[in-house]
Amino acid sequence: MTVKKVLAVLSVFFLLPISASAAERPTTVAGCAKPTAKAHAPATLKQPTSPDKKLAKTMTITTNCGVITIALDPAAPQTVTNMSALARAKYFDGSFCHRLTTEGLYVLQCGDPSAQGNGSPGSWKGYKDENLPANKILTYPAGTVAMANSGPNTNGSQFFLVYKDTTLPASYTIWGKIKTGLPLLLRIEKVGAYKVDQTSGNAYYAGDGFPVQPIEIKSVSVR
User: Fold this and answer.
1) How confident is the model at residue 87 (pLDDT cuts 50, 70, 90)?
2) Strand duo 107-110 + 95-96: pairing
3) CATH number at 3-26+57-222
């Protein structure tokens, strides 16, 4: 899906034909403001080559629906360094969380300014996995913040917020834990996710797709 198509989907979901039963479901989360962001190409930034001597301890993500705060995990020093560098450069500002899963996996995925699910900072090379789960049964409990990737050591800027206990392969760097904002994520889940039929152009509810309630990252800060 092109950036132009993503923009169209994000902006006109409520105008797309949906079934009568689907129309009875809520399409917004109370308290969320109308997003103003636009999908755009990821910025080109200098990639940190070693961990910060003094790691940031807290990340604050301000969205159009509320604030999510994350306690950063020093067991993933390179990841915390890289994500902090992106936050300070305002890389995430004005971007959408492009993926919500509500069946089997329970995550909200963010960090790709293009909103296509394949973006990463320009010129960056994938970096090492760190702090992989030790628990072999419940690998990613509710509240976990982890990196999304396309294979070993391919981390970039995309990350996911786990809002219910989720079991995945132990392949995704854990770099934080949600301190505040979990109830908000649960409200976003209740509204659900959708995809668009490429033939008809109709939107339909899906267990893995764009959040029905658009989630815009307005700003990210670390301290």
Assistant:
1) very high
2) unpaired
3) 2.40.100.10
